[in-house]
């Protein structure tokens, strides 16, 4: 362990300070092995508290005088220095780590109330302070916020257990309580406990001080100053209502570049006789801290694009690649997905599939599509997944017999690994002038690589171009194959009914990740032309089994589309262009 006395002695000498051993402050259950206090610059007394993990973790620093509303300082006086998880700490110079922390303390404490920098930093950390410094109450929120600026609207609050939940409807509340939280049906709610008045604030609105106790008149002033004239008029019209004893919940929505910020107040009225709310004097105000679990907030926290939630995708194939891909799409915010797969999920699929044995324990159908729908619905709130539970779930019956169905989607992805079916879908798209983009993704054997082919974005090529001879347009093996032609890679451990192409779950995840990136690029408008992508793995395992790689494996990977003027499917497009 580091000699902390020596560290502090070196800090005192280098900085001209006089820190001495002191009592141990505690916060959040932290246990400190040693603490040192002393006056620092003009900021009064501060305490440096060391955990046993120092110098692998920074010390905590507390300020004794917390009467000033400093940003980045907790009510207990702990100064939030930085997120140290991403920092590279020089553990060989522990005294310099302490000096660097003290420099950061000076920067934080020099941010004075009323300055532009103070307001900027307050906005960053506002929700960390609201409802913490003064008496507050916690509500949960799954409210899907109206996509409009400036509004005033009432929404229901539901009580479950000891908690209050802000939601759009009773159905939404019960879906969250029973499905997302997994509570039994006895926890379901029949009607709202009360209501909240939700107010959309103006763009660039100020934030109320979280460090002081607000009163009813300061709340009304805040609403008047931070809403447009119409919203303000509607609010004060509502406040003309005469009440004696009443509680109202007001939730504010502040629009920002990084998403909406939600906070609120509970106002209690205790009038001797019925009095207009806006004129009531005997009132109390308590801050509401909202713990958000709504879809937009969760997706944004996960790095997803909110613009994808209204996109609908058809995923063909729920096998090894398709299972991981479906999960990736949900995580990226593509929550409207139709799944089509005619196969059942078996124990032999477990070790290279997104789903494990827990899926086999489900009492429902053993269909891959049904099981994948169930797993994804359990993992992610607000997904809308259809497993297309037709009597015949083949692509031929559902899609090729009615190609116009493809026009209902923003994107079609095939993870079938069946080139004949993929080419039939490609032909249906081209011949019926259906503009829906089409992604085909599949693995090659023994971890040698995988492909993601994006077509139907531009008219110069199509999927058949990759399978057509350049001279005659006749059908030929896939032009981008990483293995030499005329080799059979199918394996069987238990007869013909259980054949498989050897590749691992890691290969499928790799292909699925690249396919998901292409899907997001298409749906966000970043990718607007056909594209061919190949990832290459190590060929040693394939070669050790006596197989050969193709010339393409050793060539550069083209990212542009492959065009073929002899293609029998899209050649008319070539002649027009």
Brief characterization of the structure:
The chain is about 25% helix and about 20% strand. The chain is α/β, with parallel strands linked by helices and about 575 residues long.
Please give a structural write-up.
It is built from 15 helices and 20 strands. It has helices at 4-15, 94-109, 116-129, 170-180, 216-226, 229-238, 295-301, 320-331, 357-360, 368-379, 395-400, 419-431, 505-523, 540-544, 571-576, and strands at 20-21, 34-39, 45-50, 60-63, 136-141, 152-160, 163-166, 194-200, 242-254, 261-276, 283-292, 312-316, 336-340, 384-386, 411-414, 438-443, 449-455, 491-492, 499-500, 531-536. It has a seven-stranded mixed β-barrel with strand order 5-7-6-8-9-10-11. Strand 6 and strand 7 (163-166) form a beta hairpin.
Give the N-to-C terminal Cα separation.
Answer: 74 Å
| Approximate shape | globular
**Number of H- or I-type helical stretches:** 15
Report the sheet-strand fraction: 15-25%
Low-confidence stretches: 493-497
Task: State the secondary-structure class.
Answer: alpha/beta
CATH homologous superfamily identity of the largest domain = NAD(P)-binding Rossmann-like Domain
CATH topology tier name of the largest domain: Rossmann fold
Oligomer: single chain
Q: Give, in spatial order, the strands making up the sheet with the most strands.
A: 5-7-6-8-9-10-11
Percent range of helical residues: 25-40%
Major sheet summary line? 7 strands, mixed, barrel
The assigned CATH architecture of the largest domain is 3-Layer(aba) Sandwich
């Amino acid at each position: 362990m580091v000699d902390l006395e020596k560290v502090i002695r070196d800090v005192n000498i280098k900085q001209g300070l006089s820190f001495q051993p002191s009592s141990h402050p505690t916060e959040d259950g932290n246990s400190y092995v040693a603490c040192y206090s002393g006056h620092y610059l003009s900021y009064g007394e501060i305490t440096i508290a060391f955990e046993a993990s120092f110098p692998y973790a920074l010390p905590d620093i507390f300020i004794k005088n917390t009467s000033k509303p400093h940003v980045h300082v907790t009510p207990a006086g702990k100064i939030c220095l930085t997120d140290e998880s991403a920092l590279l700490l020089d553990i060989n110079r522990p005294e310099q780590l302490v000096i660097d922390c003290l420099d950061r303390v000076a920067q934080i404490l020099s941010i004075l109330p009323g300055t532009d920098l103070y307001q900027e930093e307050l906005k960053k950390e506002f929700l960390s302070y609201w409802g913490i410094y003064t008496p507050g109450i916690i509500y949960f929120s799954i409210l899907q916020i109206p996509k409009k600026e400036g509004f005033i609207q009432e929404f229901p609050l539901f009580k479950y257990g000891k908690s209050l939940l802000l939601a759009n409807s009773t159905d939404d509340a019960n879906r969250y309580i029973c499905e997302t939280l997994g509570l039994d049906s006895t926890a379901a709610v029949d009607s709202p406990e009360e209501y909240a008045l939700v107010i959309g604030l103006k763009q660039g609105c100020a934030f109320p001080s979280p460090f002081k106790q607000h009163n009813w008149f300061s709340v009304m002033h805040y609403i008047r100053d931070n809403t447009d004239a119409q919203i303000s008029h509607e609010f004060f019209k509502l406040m003309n209502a005469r009440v004696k004893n009443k509680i109202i919940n007001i939730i504010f929505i502040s629009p920002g570049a990084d998403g909406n910020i939600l906070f609120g107040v509970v106002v209690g009225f205790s009038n001797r006789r019925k009095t207009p709310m806006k004129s009531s004097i005997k009132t109390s105000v308590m801050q509401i801290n909202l713990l958000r679990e709504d879809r937009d907030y969760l997706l944004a926290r996960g790095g997803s694009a909110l613009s994808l939630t209204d996109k609908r995708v058809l995923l063909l194939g729920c096998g090894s690649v398709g299972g991981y891909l479906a999960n990736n799409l949900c995580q990226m915010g593509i929550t409207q997905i139709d799944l089509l797969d005619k196969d059942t999920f078996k124990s032999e699929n477990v070790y290279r599939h997104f789903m494990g044995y827990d899926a086999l324990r489900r009492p429902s159908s053993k269909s891959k599509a049904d099981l994948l729908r169930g797993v994804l619905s359990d993992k992610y709130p607000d997904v809308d997944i259809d497993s297309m539970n037709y009597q015949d779930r083949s692509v031929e019956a559902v899609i090729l017999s009615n190609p116009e169905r493809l026009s209902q989607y923003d994107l079609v992805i095939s993870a079938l690994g069946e080139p004949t079916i993929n080419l039939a879908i490609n032909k249906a798209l081209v011949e019926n002038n259906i503009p829906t983009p089409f992604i085909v993704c599949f693995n090659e054997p023994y971890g040698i690589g995988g492909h993601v082919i994006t077509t139907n974005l531009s008219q110069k090529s199509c999927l058949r171009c990759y399978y057509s001879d350049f001279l005659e347009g006749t059908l030929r093996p896939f032009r981008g194959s990483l293995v030499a032609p005329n080799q059979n890679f199918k394996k069987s451990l238990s007869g013909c009914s259980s054949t498989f192409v050897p590749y691992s779950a890691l290969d499928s995840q790799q292909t699925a990740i690249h396919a998901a990136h292409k899907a997001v690029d298409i749906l966000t408008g970043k990718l607007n032309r056909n594209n061919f992508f190949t990832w290459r793995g190590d060929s040693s395992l394939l070669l050790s089994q006596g197989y050969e790689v193709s010339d393409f494996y050793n060539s550069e990977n083209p990212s542009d589309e492959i065009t073929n003027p002899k293609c029998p499917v899209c050649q008319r497009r070539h002649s027009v262009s």
